[in-house]
Inverse folding.
């Protein structure tokens, strides 16, 4: 198996989601500490403009969005499975969107500053608020007032508490992708602003079970070394699946991909693969060479350039 190179930073909730999945799968990985705020020159060299964390790199294939990363990892290591439980993917989509947005709205005013100071550099800490304003400047979602977000969060946590009344994990006796997706917003709150979680002992016990899943830590790798891995990888690639684009755009077209919600930085490239689940662009730069950038269909817009 080609080595997994994970571009992330410690405080990123979606990065924690993938770190727990790597542990669940017992997969070794290399850790590249990505900047928490812009500029991110080495990450942008790989992604072509995608600024969010995390990013998963395998050779010169770069995967954006944890909904796609989780499926890639599940294909590489099918056991234990992530998607066996009915409705696991749908529950994960709810957690990655609705629950995450509520947790960030509440947790972005932390009551525990020790971890923030430990995980971010002084420069990142000073720039974080302005960076997130820029990221959400063209958001298609209107910001929710914090008081409303807190009320909605309580309602969602009540539902989680009820779901965990008779089983150790959300959809059964073993973790699924639904658990890892619901876990990372809870982890974010527990780390930075744990007060909303206090009335929910089952949620806290479940989160502890996810956190206790053991697996190999990722040895450090520099972003320069990761770029060298990409540049040293074969430039030719033949997709396994036939081209079946849900958009009326032909293979070989110059296209633009943007996130459909926020952080809508444009990624330009040549469309080389599209299926009902995945979009792949081919790009080439001096430092990274030929790179294939993968996006999920859900959550992203594809347009002709």
């Amino acid at each position: 198996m080609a080595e997994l190179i994970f571009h992330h930073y410690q405080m990123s909730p979606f990065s924690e989601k993938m770190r727990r999945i790597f542990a669940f799968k017992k997969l070794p990985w290399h850790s590249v500490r990505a900047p928490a705020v812009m500029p991110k020159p080495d990450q942008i060299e790989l992604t072509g403009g995608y600024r969010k964390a995390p990013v998963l790199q395998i050779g010169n294939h770069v995967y954006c969005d944890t909904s796609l990363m989780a499926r890639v990892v599940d294909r590489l290591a099918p056991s234990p499975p992530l998607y066996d439980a009915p409705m696991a993917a749908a529950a994960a989509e709810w957690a990655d969107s609705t629950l995450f947005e509520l947790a960030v709205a509440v947790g972005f005013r932390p009551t525990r500053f020790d971890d923030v100071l430990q995980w971010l550099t002084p420069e990142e800490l000073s720039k974080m608020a302005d960076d997130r304003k820029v990221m959400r400047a063209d958001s298609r979602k209107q910001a929710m007032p914090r008081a409303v977000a807190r009320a909605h969060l309580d309602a969602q946590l009540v539902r989680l508490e009820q779901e965990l009344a008779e089983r150790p994990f959300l959809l059964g006796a073993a973790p699924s992708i639904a658990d890892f997706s619901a876990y990372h917003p809870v982890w974010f709150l527990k780390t930075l602003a744990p007060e909303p979680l206090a009335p929910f002992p089952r949620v806290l016990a479940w989160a502890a079970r996810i956190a206790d899943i053991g697996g190999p830590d990722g040895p450090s790798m520099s972003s320069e070394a990761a770029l060298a891995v990409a540049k040293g990888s074969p430039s030719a690639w033949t997709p396994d699946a036939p081209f079946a684009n849900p958009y009326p755009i032909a293979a070989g077209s110059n296209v633009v991909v943007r996130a459909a919600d926020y952080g809508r930085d444009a990624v330009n490239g040549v469309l080389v693969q599209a299926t009902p689940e995945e979009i792949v662009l081919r790009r080439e730069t001096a430092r990274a060479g030929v790179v294939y950038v993968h996006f999920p269909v859900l959550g992203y817009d594809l347009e002709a350039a």
Notes: Residues 88-107 form the longest helix (20 residues). The chain has two domains: 5-79+218-304, 88-211.
